[in-house]
Structure formats: C-alpha cells, structure tokens
Amino acid sequence: MFVGHFGVAFAGKKVAPTVPLPMLLVAAILADILWVIFLSAGIEHVAIRPGIMATNSLDLYDFALSHSLATDLVWAALLAVFWYVYRRNGRGAWVLFVLVMSHWVLDFISHRPDMPIAPGLHRYFGLALWNSWLATLVVEGGLWVAGIALYLSATRARNSTSMIGFWFFVVLLTVAWLDSLKGTPPPSIRALNVSNAVFLPILLLWAWWMERTRPAVPDARSATTAS
Question: Does this model's pTM top 0.90?
Fold first, then answer.
C-alpha cells in the first residue's frame, strides 16, 4: 500500500497523542525505509515487470530482510523498546509496535503472493488487492480518509498556515498515490531508489513541521497521561 500506511500513522495520533507524527510515520513505513537502504546497499533486489499487477509493475522477489513477518517483528520490537527507554511511554511503545506490524498486514492485503514469512523460508502470501484498481481505490482510500479524520480529531491547527500546510500534504500524497495506480513502471531501479531516497525525508520533515504547528488537543494529551 501507499497512503494506507500513512493513514494508519495518522490514526495512531488519536491513540497515542504524545508520540510525534514523524515517529508514527517512521513506524508505519519502517519496512519501506529499510527497503530503500537495503536496495541501495545491494542487500535486497527488485525487478521491473510491466503488467505484473494492474496497479504496480515491481517484482519484489527479494526483500525478506525488510518486509518478512519475522523480521518486521524484530524491527517492531526494537523500535518499541527504543521508544520506551527514551520516553518511558508504554502506550506509545505499543502503538509504534503495532504500526510497524501493520505494514506487513497491509502489504499482505495489497501485494500479489510475494510477502515472505521469514528470510530463507520460501513461502509467500498476498491477497493481490492491487490487481483491482477499483478495490484498491475503495480499500486504501478508505484507510486514508479514516486516518485523516482521526488525525484531525486528535490535533488542532494553530493558524491558517498550519491548516493549509496539512491539506497540501494530504493533496500531495493523494495525487502521488492516484498517479501510482496507473501502474506506470519507473525508468530504472536506480531512478526508483533515488526518488524514494528523496521523497521519504521530505515527507518526514514536513511531518515534523506539522507536529510543531498542529499540537494534540489538550483533552487527548490529558487522557493519555492519565492512563
């Protein structure tokens, strides 16, 4: 998925309002961040195969270190432990753990049977949502809209600039997602990796700005502290 991952990260703000939005996003897309790193290092591999799915042209034949169920459990545990040690925030740690694991679940729904269970274990799973443009639009779009609604209910814009910045972020991701549904193959693996290496840091920096300009509503923070 694409915006589906961002949708669950936004929803995480409702459950753990004291966890900064950039950290929620890192958790939700941690597998993809690691994939970009491992792909650049030559540890994982991908092939471009136009038409392999209706809305996607990537043959993800070697990405078990970043995307398998077993390794995602490890990444999730490491991030959760880090957050608990750093902030002593049990709820936040659990939310980050769940967000990391949600990546495998959402990819299992959208991918063809290429989602690995563990490195070296050649069994793959996937419901192939991406083979239907309409189903992808409904399911992933629904997650995206729900996540946006929950984030808006958990935060408050300080001024019109923060409101405009938020909706520009939403529109940018939505347009990029809709464009990706065309299934147009990237010109090369290198171009794919460079675009991801540029795009992801920009999104996280934008999220950092939004965290500063859209604080959690006081009631939500108080409820979390009390729990």
Answer: yes
